[in-house]
Amino acid sequence: LCQEKLGNYVQAMESYAAIEEFVNSEGARENFANSKYLEFVFGMAKWRREQLEDTRAIRQAVKLYIYI
């Protein structure tokens, strides 16, 4: 979230992807069912990454529309 607030959206997306990758690893999966915190962090990271991707797509569409 700090990277996002600083405007470093690429780094924020990389961080969110790294969190998702970690949660999907074997070691994390063993503890995933027993950890509500890990489940929450995974859900938040996934949601924020999706939001950033949607925002980027919207900005690109607007740029195309403006320059046409």
Explained architecture:
The protein is an all-alpha fold and 68 residues long. The protein is built from four helices and no strands. Helix 2 (9-23) runs antiparallel to helix 4.
Characteristics of this structure?
mainly alpha, 0% strand, 68 residues, 4 helices
Write the layout of secondary structure elements.
Blueprint: H1 2-5, H2 9-23, H3 26-32, H4 36-66
**How many separate helices?**
4
Count all strands and give the number: 0
Average of per-residue pLDDT values:
84
Beta fraction: under 5%
Cα-atom Rg, whole angstroms?
15 Å
How far apart are the termini? 34 Å
Q: Runs with pLDDT <50, length 5+?
A: none
One letter per element, helices H and strands E, the order comes to HHHH
Binned, the helix content reads over 70%
The main sheet comes to: none
Q: In one word, what is the shape?
A: elongated
Determine the structural class based on helices, strands and strand pairing: mainly alpha
Task: Summarize this entry quickly.
The protein is mostly helical and 68 residues long. Helix content is 84%, strand content 0%.
